């Protein structure tokens, strides 16, 4: 069940608003951003889309503003990016919070939107957690640069097919 949340907004250098908390169109928009980009750029198909949709819906259903955050980049009210800090997973005690669903619409890249999302997420992480991890895959160089500039370190690489396509999955970790 979604919990009520106080909305807070931050301005990014590109005048895109970074909003905090769930909203009714978040599920469709975040899934569509992931589906569109990863299908075009990486040939990911229905397996990836279903994974994103199912896991993101589950996150929204249990969202608790005490330990979770959803940051959305908005351009004239339209969701053009997202970043989630999932602090309610069963693994949070052993692995820390989980940074998830970080994406920026291709029309908004290079304007500071990803950095603004990452900055908002890192403020929440630093204030609430001693550790955080994320999983991604090799080839997403712009995102990797942001992760590393904010203190995440690559800790593991392995071949994986759980994205629906064979990739070199990477795990990054941040420690206070």
What would you say this structure looks like, in words?
- The chain is of the alpha+beta class and 176 residues long.
- The protein has a domain at 9-131: 3-Layer(aba) Sandwich (Aminopeptidase), CATH 3.40.630.
- It contains five helices and eight strands.
- The protein has helices spanning 26-42, 46-62, 92-95, 113-128, 141-149; strands spanning 9-11, 17-20, 68-75, 78-86, 97-104, 131-137, 153-160, 167-175.
- Strands 1-2-3-4-5-6-8-7 form an eight-stranded mixed β-sheet, sandwiched between helices.
- A hairpin with a 2-residue loop joins strand 3 (68-75) and strand 4.
- Helix 1 packs antiparallel against helix 2.
Helices, strands, pairings?
Elements: E1 9-11, E2 17-20, H1 26-42, H2 46-62, E3 68-75, E4 78-86, H3 92-95, E5 97-104, H4 113-128, E6 131-137, H5 141-149, E7 153-160, E8 167-175
Parallel strand pairs: 5-6
Antiparallel strand pairs: 1-2, 2-3, 3-4, 4-5, 6-8, 7-8
Helix pairs in contact: 1-2
